[in-house]
Amino acid sequence: MPKVYFVIPCYNEEEVLPETIKRLNSKLCELIEQEKATDDSRMIFVDDGSRDKTWSIISAYSRENKYVGGVKLAHNRGHQNALLGGLMTAKEEGCDCVISLDADLQDDIGVIDQFIDKYMQGCEVVYGVRNSRKKDTFFKRSTAQGYYKFMKLLGVDIVYNHADYRLLGSKALDALSEYKEVNLFLRGIVPLIGYRTDYVYYERNERFAGESKYPLKKMLRFAVDGITSFSVKPLKIISNIGLVICALSVIGFIYALISLILGSAVAGWASTICSIWFLGGLQMLCIGIVGTYVGKIYSEVKARPRYRIEEKIIVKE
Questions:
Q1: Which partner for 115 in 19, 100, 167, 238 could form a disulfide, CB atoms 3.0-4.6 Å apart?
Q2: Does 16 lie in the same domain as 58?
Q3: What gap in Å lies between CA 277 and CA 283, rounded to an integer?
Q4: Looking at the DSSP assignment, which residues form a beta bridge with residue 47?
Q5: How many domains does the chain have?
Q6: Does the pTM exceed 0.85?
Q7: Beta carbons of 166 and 84 less than 8 angstroms apart
């Protein structure tokens, strides 16, 4: 039987957390009874610098239930860093496999048995993949699907319709710990690990309570992080655009010279101004893209800690 850990990042989840703990505890006890998990399996709730009662709730439940554990980060570091902190804590506790999922109960915990079955069959990485996006709004569905396709186009190895609901075995956790980048994008890193992989398909539920912690602004920032962390194709695109513009400029110069010689040159104030504005805007866009990559390099070179644990509660017995 494997020693199974659940890792659940939490940020201001006081409204949903009691129900989440109740359901996950029931699932973990069920796995133990069915001999799919050992009795020293645990749940780790990672408080990512919440401003509400999230940590108080985790602490209270951990005193009453040995299966409930908690990790409190010193300050808010973002979902990916909080998730990594929980995964590395599970690794240090000697788990055989860890299943990561969100605290909002949108991930279907009913398929956890399938995750473990595939792990027992020899899979080190098992992805939870959504069957469909029918419950999403048209805007969210179209932008999400477009993003996955765009990432594939840029050469990024990413699993379609997969978020952070996955199982990682101990070997995969060891491999993950070797990736030291500060700009974390686990959906792109995990496929690089290798090992035997499989998929579990599920229907994503509505959020049980509370509000989404990923508004449009954060989603866009997350998307940019994913692109710039795993592909340099935008830089190559800039170079290609520059070559095309140079070629067009040469053609334009030759045309203007011929027109001057033939005496058919016509004053073109509007076209000149439009060209200047177009090239100026294009230059600013290209500088912005290059600046984003430079900023990434700046963060990586400083190599600051990705998270810092302030308090940890895990019952050993």
A1: 167
A2: yes
A3: 10
A4: 10, 72
A5: 2
A6: no
A7: no
